[in-house]
Amino acid sequence: MRQYFNDAPKTALSASYWLFVIYLLLPLALMMAMSFKDANFIAFPIGNWTLDWYGKVLQDKQFLHAAGYSIFIAVSTTIFATAIGLWIALLISAEGIWGRAIIFALACLPAVVPGLINAISMRIFIRVLDIPTGTGAVILGHTVHAVPFVVIMVLTRLRSMPNNLIDAARDLGADNFIAFVRVTIPFLAPALIGGMIFCVLTSIDDFVRTFFLGGYQTTLPMLIFAKVQSGMSPEINAMATIVLLVTACVGLYAEHFTRRSRT
Q1: What are the two backbone dihedrals, phi and then psi, of residue 100, each rounded to the nearest 5 degrees?
Q2: What is the DSSP code (8-state) at residue 174?
Q3: pLDDT tens-digit map of 124-171
Q4: Is residue 220 packed enough to be buried (19+ CB in 10 Å), middle (13-18) or exposed (0-12)?
Q5: DSSP alpha helices (H): ranges in 59-175?
Q6: Which residue intervals of 133-214 are DSSP H helices?
Q7: Which of 49, 56, 156, 157 has its CA 20 to 30 A from that of 215?
């Protein structure tokens, strides 16, 4: 009887975990299944299955253009966010810096501000600076949102870095720049790669900031949103499934690379 009461919390916790996993994965599985429906509408039962929707999507110039545009914005955002986030993290971890808590709080502020509020404030900001809406404004908005995640990941890695690594490099004749390039950057590589992948995924998925700051060119979220306005169809599910599979593969690779680099 005592063993039963000891195992009951573990069983309940395990059951709650698997119920949560089902809750997360079941809608995605249903979405992916509907992308194979041989009909122009979404409804159960599926009946006949087909791959025609994927062929149509991969031949859709509008989809390909939106995908290319989203990748361009994501790559640009990642470059700027990684450089700025790395600089802020090094600034916070440097010796003799006053107000580290304030710098860290300001750097992480965009991550805790609701996306809608952040998008509205960025729209006002670019209007004050007379920056036109479009690619530059979207990259700026995505970069501001992505920087906190790079800062957090790099700071976490920096705190585990032994101080004697830099001292050993200096004893061997390396100056500050050489020590930074050959010691600090390689040690931070897992955090930087993880932060970069996270920047790419958040940028591609960002709809609210793109909607407020974008111009006439559409990204993948905006294209899917526009198509949803005219009614759901298996074509939209096929688009969403392609995006889901690509982003999932990128995320899994980043996790694998990070784990391998830390061993």
Answers
A1: -60, -40
A2: -
A3: 999 888 888 888 999 999 999 999 999 998 998 888 877 777 667 776
A4: buried
A5: 61-93, 100-112, 115-128, 135-158, 163-171
A6: 135-158, 163-171, 176-179, 185-205, 208-213
A7: 56
204 vs 95, 125, 188, 207, 247, CA distance in Å?
36, 22, 24, 8, 9
Largest CA distance in the chain: 73
pLDDT tens-digit series, residues 76-100: 999 999 999 999 998 888 776 787 8
Confidence (pLDDT) at 171: 66
Superfamily of domain 53-262: MetI-like (1.10.3720.10)
Q: Which is more confidently placed, 38 or 10? A: 38
Distance CA 143, CA 139 (A): 6
pLDDT band at residue 258 under the 50/70/90 scheme: low
Question: Which residues contact residue 74 at a Cβ distance below 8 angstroms, ignoring those fewer than 6 apart?
Answer: 142, 199, 200, 203, 204
Work out whether the CA dihedral 214, 217, 222, 226 comes out positive or negative.
Answer: positive
Residue where the block lists tokens 């700071």: 155
If you average pLDDT over every residue of the chain, what do you get? 83
Element (H, E) at 245: helix 234-262
Interatomic CA distance for residues 229 and 211, integer angstroms: 15
Angstrom distance (rounded) from CA 135 to CA 69 = 9
Contacts of 167 (CB under 8 A, 6+ apart): none
> What is the three-class DSSP state of 206?
coil
Backbone phi and psi for residue 230, each to the nearest 5 degrees, phi listed first: -95, 5
Q: How far apart are CA 55 and CA 60, in angstroms?
A: 9
| CA gap 57, 218 in Å, rounded | 16
